[in-house]
Fold this sequence. Notes:
Helix 9 runs antiparallel to helix 16. By secondary structure, the protein is an alpha+beta fold.
Amino acid sequence: MCAIVGVFGNSDASRVAYYALFAMQHRGQEATGISTSDGKNITTVKKRGLVTDVFDEQALTKLKGHMAVGHNRYSTAGKASTWDAQPVYASYQLGEISVVHNGNLINKNEVRNSLIEQGAIFQSDMDTENIIHLIARSQKERLKDRIIEALDVIKGAYCLCIQSRTKMFAIRDRYGVRPFSLGRLENGGYIVSSETCAFDLVGATFVRDIKPGEMLIFEKGCDEYKSIQLFEPDPHICAFEYIYFARPDSDIEGKNVYAVRKEMGRALAREQKVDADLVIPVPDSGVSAALGYAEESGIPFEMGIVRNHYVGRTFIEPTQERRDMKVKLKLLPIRALLKGKKIVVIDDSIVRGTTAKRIIKILKEAGASEVHMRIASPTIEHPCKYGIDTPSYKELISANYSIEEIKDYVEADSLDFLSIDALKKSLGDDTKYSLVSFDGNYFIK
Ligand code: AMP
């Protein structure tokens, strides 16, 4: 998962990066960091914690320069330590570089072991560190060529921002798995960012998505960026970004995430209609799809469960009793609305089945007479290796049980999912998508 941002040619680069990371906090809450360059030196601040905890006025003032790269971390590769916070910085033969990465490299261990055999010393457990080692070890004279050489070795899903003291490179893998967009800043320069929701906050105008297989080069003294098509594009845009991960106000490949989610809800209502009194979303992940479901089915939409936003993420939950207490603190059913009603409850996805079971219990305890669950994506039967944090086959409920068995486990009166075909239709046919969690097509070999 993770979020990355790159800012070039802006006198307030660190602050722009800060706001962009704030807008993309949903993509990772474990650690955050920014590196800036003033043309002579790269400065980095990175730490575990949220964007607002890590960066204060003092940190932002320290981060001087007209260019910045930043990162929010959600660990899909590596461990939860400060060493695993990004940007990854190095001083090497050509000077200094700082790298941020969103995605997952599938040949991480192979490349890492081979580098270790050649004498490399690793500081972190991150696949991103491979890239910096490959760049540092290359014999090419120019950074651009060193990066290209490194990209020939790594395999997987990646969006990268690589900053030297005077240049910035933004690269998207040939499959375009993770989103990556380019914007123009109102008060000068450019921004590249995992999601377009960052542009609104910093006053940037969307220019275009970075193409799969493309490298953009921003250079000091040049007003315009250069573009090189490094690899033949083979688009496999991650469907899960639309289903769950991206923020609803972001546009990916020209399509608004909220609109696509709502369309998935409409498609679900056409495929899996239920006779019910109310459509209720799982807060907050099921809201957009539930609105679509209600619109299409004509069944009234109600926020039958509201969330208490003040339940801390660090709440200790060592026993089942405490965990149940946490759910009670967090999810508040509106009894007056639910009592005696036939409910269709909508969520975007089922991973382990934990959320579904809890929500149905809450609705039944609040007096609902029937609870039918509809899921606005197909059954997740395969782990994603390209940067979405889905667990192993063992933990994925749909990889091990039939829909009927899952229905019994979550104690729903009925349960159904969106079909893969309907998902594809909701996404549109103007490009290809990665549906790996649903169809097991691991297209990066
Ligand atoms: P589970 O409770 O394990 O079945 O997970 C399903 C719930 O987690 C749904 O409410 C989703 O909105 C949410 N979800 C789906 N995918 C992910 C993910 N990769 N990371 C965290 N939460 C997720």
